[in-house]
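Please produce the structure of this protein holding zinc ion.
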Amino acid sequence: MSVSPRVLLSIDYEPVFALFRHYDRVTDPKTRRDMDGGFTARAIDSILDQLSDSKASIYLVGEIAEWYPDVPQKIVAAGHELGLHCQFHRPLVNVDQLASDLRDSSAWRKQYGVQGYRAPMVGISEAAYPLLESYGFQYSSSIYAPAGTLLKKGWMWEIPVSTWRTRDAHEELVAPRDFSFKLLLGGEFPYGSSFSIGLMARRILSIIEEELKRGHSPVLIMHPYELVTPPSSARLTRDLMRNPHLIPFLWDKSPFLRDVLKNFPVSPLKTYLDETLALNEQPSR
Ligand SMILES: [Zn+2]
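Below is the modeled complex.
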């Protein structure tokens, strides 16, 4: 049995500089806060306005909760699911690094009862699932896989970010499954990625419509800097010139979000998971 199909909308709530790997080495909290320049504190109000009455999963980078404790408060007060993206944004495929990051986010995760995790760059290893479980997580959304996939990993669940299969395949869905040439060559188009949304928003709206008709609930990722324009700066211009492949991440996707909210039912990932689990617990006749 399955619950009513809907778009599982998620926002990885992170500073703009999280796009660029050379800032991973900057560890001083004050420098990182200065680099954000108040953007993540300002953007939240506009994003909550844009979401209006629709509810989403917002996976927060924990350092933002330290800089601006208002941000997680506003997310929860508006009725959205608050999840963890990471404490400091960098690749966390390595489980020792993930464990250290999870320890750093303990306080605010506990305060808000966080149960959902989205790995930075959608990069995770199989060994991460028992670790996340031991830290009280219920689910992760940290691989790419065809919509409608729900994987059990021990007591944890994995709700993948959506891909569209151009041809049938029956391989086991084992982590990592990030946005890579391997995925594309295997005939999978990761339309749940905001990079793809930047390139072909219209096409993705029609894919979503088809998925919902098939009874699937697509998982989409967006970012704050795609919904609210970050202030231009010489640093950002230089970073983009050095990383032109990242430019689609900065295209304004608020019209896309508006279309999604206008045309389709939307829910947080946790709501969908809880409904699915409750439905399947009932004895079948
Ligand atoms: Zn991220």
